[in-house]
Design a protein that fits this description.
It contains ten helices and 21 strands. With about 375 residues, the chain is of the alpha/beta class. The strands form four sheets. Strands 1, 2, 3, 4, 5, 19, 20 and 21 form an eight-stranded mixed sheet that branches. Strands 6-9-10-11-12-13-14-15 form an eight-stranded parallel sheet. Strands 16-17-18 form a three-stranded antiparallel sheet, with no helix packed on it. Helix 8 runs antiparallel to helix 9. The chain is globular, with a radius of gyration of 20 Å. About 55% of the residues are buried.
Length: about 375
Amino acid sequence: MSTLFHRARKLDSEGQVDDFWMIVEGDTITATGSGRTPDRPSATDSVDVGGNWLVPGFIDLHCHGGGGHSYDDRTEEILAARAMHRSHGTTRSVLSLVANPLAQLRESLAVIADLADADPTILGSHLEGPFLADGRRGAHNPAYLTTPQPFEVEELIGAARGTLRQLTLAPELPGALETIDVLVEAGVAVAIGHTEADFDVAREAFDRGARILTHAFNAMNGIHHRAPGPIIAAFEDERVTIELILDGQHVHPDVAGMAFRGAPGRIALITDAMAAAGKGDGDYRLGTLNVTVLDGLAVLRGTQSIAGSTLTQDVALRNAIEHAGVHPVDAIASLTTVPARALGLDHRLGRLAPGYAADAVILDAGLHVGRVWANGALVGYR
């Protein structure tokens, strides 16, 4: 089976092309072009995009759940949360886990490994803990925070069976820098976050192989003119991908715009979403902690501590363009090629080009999601 997508306005990190077409065979894009060229291949099926935007499927490096469901729970809950985010254009996801007892984390990693084996759109897991600074723990249970021990890290890597994609740690913790070495050797993308690290420690972590800054500006030292901190260390290092939660609550849109200008091609828009995303206000759980959501803002119950977000990536795209003043090409890149590159998957994901995975989203003129394809299959419709 082959499918022709035609009459599209293509938008990806390579730019905009009007009257765009592409051919999909199975799970792969095999040909692209524009206009009604005489050598355009034929196809057994067709999708008329109707002059709307056609963009690559979004990739979320950092998400905890949605639709009332959590990625820390059973398989059915994980799949339900994934389905909600797919309907908002997220075709590939890294499933994030909050700090929990190590035995429980090993069990969760094994569940995600099974799901990733069966579904290539589940990219694997992200451990956002337990190796975090207590003073910057955010919505992580302090009872489960710990310093990294080599044998425990190796057990976590083994439980994931090659599907641990990312691990966030505080590099100032005892043993953290040596742990970066272990993780890099195992092919895990190391992020620094939930940290008290200063500029020098952050820079040393990046020199050891850390390549991601977890939700920049949140749960870390801010920028001070005499103490620049980890944010400036990340901005100065062209090897580092900078996560950003662009919901208008975690980071002011003007600060987000500054981040895009200061680190061009290195901002990855993530959701850091918890179960309330796509569901609404109310009471929820994030790991073992109680969360209250009011007017879309999730906080630990009885506190002002933000507990993840209720964001979806289509909303992040609109916020970037409409409120942060980000160019549409750069905004799309932050949801596609930038996260793909952070995971070493930019040879296969993030573009509408021959040889790339057939992940595509139709957006209307207001950048709202219409239909969603992942791996060549229609998976979402709004």
